[in-house]
Amino acid sequence: HSASMFGGGGPLSLGAGAGGAVGAANKEKSAEVKGWIREIMALPEGVTMMVTELKCKQENCPPFETIMVVMGGGEVGTHKRRIHSRMVDLTRDIVGAAWAAGETEQGFMPPGVLGGS
Fold this sequence. Notes:
By secondary structure, the protein is α+β, with helices and mostly antiparallel strands. It has 3 helices and 4 strands, in the order αβαβββα. Strands 1-2-3-4 form a 4-stranded antiparallel beta sheet, with helices on one face. Helix 2 crosses helix 3.
């Protein structure tokens, strides 16, 4: 299922942050977001996390979304959240709200993004 998440003919493709200055900014922001997730979920060290920004090509979808995945195995399990926002615009409050809302097919819409509240 990860092939469709990152292109492979699916509705999502890797975002513009694949290189250059934007890529460096997203790398730093990704590390910050992972730290927030670790705190919010009280995760032990060694849990694998992925945070990436993708372009959304679906109708009525903001142009970018950030995908966050925790792959802990055992008691931690695997968890995924989609936030309809560029990674650089995420705050700890938005990330916390997305985790509190739970995993949904449509993802989390932060306030001010296409009618998010």
